[in-house]
Q: What sequence folds into this?
């Protein structure tokens, strides 16, 4: 068995996470050529994988395990990385974070041809998983270790079907024909004659000879493998097809898996707990898991917060406005988080205006919706001037009464789920406490647009003509550029050559810079390490909050324009949006930002559009399928994102666009490529978009 069950399902003959981690340590310490390339982590560019990498790096650091962290953006880059890993003679442990679960890793196409010393650990929250990696045996299969969350225990029917199709002979195979030829009618007739002769004989010797021959024939007949009928084979194939084609969904976060490992190792602290909370919050705010699944994991972290932290101060218990109790206070507290976008760091009006939940209920893209928003605030007793002030500078009595007045008046406007259980963390006297949702927004913004696109951010005090008549400034990548300029003592007088240099991370990891010939790869790697450093740097994290605000302004601006101009077309049950012009076109050519826009549109239109069943859908349940495409002028391609939204707020539908994209590509021969690990994101040649969308919306023969 090559998948690791969670600790509560483990037994003496079924090892779990701790045993796998112990094997990594043993392999590292036994290896004669130990180096940073002996243990390598390949990390997907999302917040959950980033947090898992930081947590695992901390554990490795405590055990003196040298390792490397390499960001990998998608399947194409993973293939290139595979060719490079073949040349690493001292590599014995490869860890894939939020990638690889759908790939047939034991095959020669991936890691089947690698040295037998290599073990590949897959910690991936995306589903479905490739059954060859989960249940496969043999020399290659045993080297692929899937860190499962318990979901594989529910795949027993799929496992039986996979084993039957993998190990049972084909109905018309040579093996079956050979077995049939061994028992031809002539031999059967001879056997019957021999039995008659034995029955008439009065001696026991002759009978014993005949009995032995007959026993051998009978055993040979009994040892024949049960040949599966064609109907059984088709039934098993249909079972596997249903499993693979039902759409993509997500299980336990990768950071949650590492936190369970740290719990078993008895190394849990507030830092690891906070990173696990960020991974869970990221899954929830990006609609990867439903509210029901979020509440299940939240209850676990709620108990952990109570165990590792002092009781919350009574002063902040009513409005969840906690303050650090001493200069080194890094406590984590449970809170009820309002669905207002970064409201503690913005002003109240903008925080509500840029909330996707408020947008869906009030329709803020119309003048009537904005009037309803100001009317709600006025009915609560908040003047427009008060709501335009930064939230930290608002009157204390208004902040104390905010939640109570929202509970009283918001339901009149259909706002009945304005809060959800979450967490916040103190940072001593260096900063105000930061909520998990705000931290996730800041880190996501760094991953997407820290570099690679020009972004203007609003500086504090610039509203209403302040700070040189309200001018903003261009985002310059936070503290990274200043930190490099400050290290003047390491730069020779003549400057440095533009060659790529290895960079040491905070944990002693070494990684190379991106290929200088590929600017896109350069800024992607730079964004990854900027976000990675910000995970434990509150100053850098707070500096990223204005960037996240600017990103949400662009999303609201573009989304409101799409709805207001009625740019949403309906093609056979699909809602299709194509962006070809606009001031933010270069911004939305980034898959991560375009995915955010698609989710915002799905939330905004959930209560205003009727649910449909897409032509390519396997399920008959109605949903809100949305396809958003944006022109990348520089590359001459379109970035296409598919979202399958549920009709009820808080629910999640399986995303069936991954296979639908592949099916449409094959039928129309469009020139495409998958640049990310998300199969519902596709890059397609500019000239092939129209025929691709038409083919996609027609659906295949189901």
A:
């Amino acid at each position: 068995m090559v998948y690791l069950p969670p600790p509560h399902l483990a037994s003496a003959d079924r090892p779990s996470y701790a045993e796998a981690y112990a094997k990594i340590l043993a392999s590292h310490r036994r290896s004669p050529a130990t180096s940073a390339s002996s243990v390598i982590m390949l990390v997907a560019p999302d917040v959950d994988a980033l947090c898992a990498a930081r947590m695992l790096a901390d554990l490795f650091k405590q055990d003196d395990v040298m390792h490397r962290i390499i960001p990998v953006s998608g399947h194409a880059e993973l293939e290139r990385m595979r060719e490079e890993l073949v040349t690493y003679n001292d590599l014995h442990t490869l860890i894939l974070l939020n990638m690889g679960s759908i790939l047939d890793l034991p095959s020669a196409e991936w890691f089947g041809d690698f040295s037998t010393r290599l073990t590949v650990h897959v910690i991936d929250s995306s589903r479905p998983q490739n059954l060859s990696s989960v249940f496969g045996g043999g020399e290659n299969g045993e080297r692929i270790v899937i860190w499962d969350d318990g979901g594989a225990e529910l795949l027993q029917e799929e496992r039986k079907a996979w084993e039957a199709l993998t190990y049972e002979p084909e109905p018309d195979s040579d093996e079956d024909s050979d077995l049939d030829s061994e028992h031809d009618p002539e031999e059967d007739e001879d056997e019957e004659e021999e039995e008659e002769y034995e029955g008439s004989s009065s001696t026991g010797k002759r009978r014993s000879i005949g009995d032995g021959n007959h026993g051998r024939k009978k055993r040979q007949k009994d040892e024949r493998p049960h040949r599966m009928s064609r109907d059984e084979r088709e039934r098993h194939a249909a079972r596997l097809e249903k499993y693979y084609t039902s759409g993509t969904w997500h299980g336990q976060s990768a950071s949650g898996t590492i936190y369970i490992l740290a719990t078993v190792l008895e190394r849990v602290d507030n830092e690891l707990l906070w990173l696990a909370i960020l991974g869970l919050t990221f899954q929830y705010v990006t609609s990867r898991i439903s509210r029901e699944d979020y509440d299940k994991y939240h209850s676990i972290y709620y108990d952990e917060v109570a165990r590792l932290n002092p009781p919350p101060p009574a002063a902040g218990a009513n409005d969840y406005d906690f303050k650090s109790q001493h200069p080194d206070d890094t406590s984590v507290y449970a809170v009820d988080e309002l669905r207002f976008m970064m409201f503690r760091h913005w002003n109240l009006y903008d925080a509500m205006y840029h909330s996707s939940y408020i947008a869906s209920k009030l329709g803020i893209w119309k003048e009537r919706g904005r009037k309803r928003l100001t009317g709600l605030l006025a009915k609560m007793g908040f003047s427009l001037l008060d709501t335009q002030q930064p939230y930290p500078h608002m009157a204390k009595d208004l902040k104390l009464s905010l939640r109570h007045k929202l509970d009283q008046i918001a339901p009149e406007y259909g706002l009945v789920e304005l809060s959800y259980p979450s967490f916040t963390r103190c940072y001593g006297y260096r900063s105000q406490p930061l909520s998990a949702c705000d931290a996730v927004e800041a880190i996501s913004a760094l991953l997407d647009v820290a570099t690679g696109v020009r972004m203007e951010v609003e500086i504090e005090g610039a509203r209403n003509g302040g700070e040189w008549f309200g001018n903003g400034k261009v985002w310059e990548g936070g503290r990274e550029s200043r930190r490099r300029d400050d290290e003047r003592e390491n730069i020779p007088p003549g400057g440095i050559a533009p060659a790529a240099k290895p960079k040491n991370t905070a944990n002693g990891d070494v990684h190379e810079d991106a290929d200088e010939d590929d600017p896109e790869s350069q800024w992607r790697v730079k964004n990854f390490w900027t976000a990675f450093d910000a995970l434990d740097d509150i100053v850098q994290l707070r500096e990223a909050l204005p960037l996240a605000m600017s990103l949400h302004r662009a999303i609201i601006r573009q989304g409101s324009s799409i709805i207001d101009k009625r740019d949403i077309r309906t093609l056979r049950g699909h809602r299709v949006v194509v962006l070809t012009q606009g001031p933010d076109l270069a911004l939305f050519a980034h898959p991560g930002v375009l995915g955010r826009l698609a989710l915002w549109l799905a939330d905004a239109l959930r209560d205003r559009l009727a649910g449909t069943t897409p032509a390519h859908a396997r399920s008959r349940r109605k949903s809100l399928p949305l396809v958003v495409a944006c022109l990348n002028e520089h590359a001459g391609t379109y970035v296409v994102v598919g979202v399958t939204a549920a009709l009820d707020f808080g629910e999640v539908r399986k995303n069936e666009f991954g296979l639908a994209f592949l099916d449409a590509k094959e039928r129309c021969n469009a020139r495409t490529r998958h640049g990310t690990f998300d199969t519902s994101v596709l890059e397609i040649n500019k000239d092939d978009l129209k025929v691709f969308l038409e083919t996609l919306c027609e659906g295949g023969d189901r």
Notes: The chain has four domains: 3-152, 256-447, 448-488+519-566, 567-698. The chain has 28 helices and 21 strands.
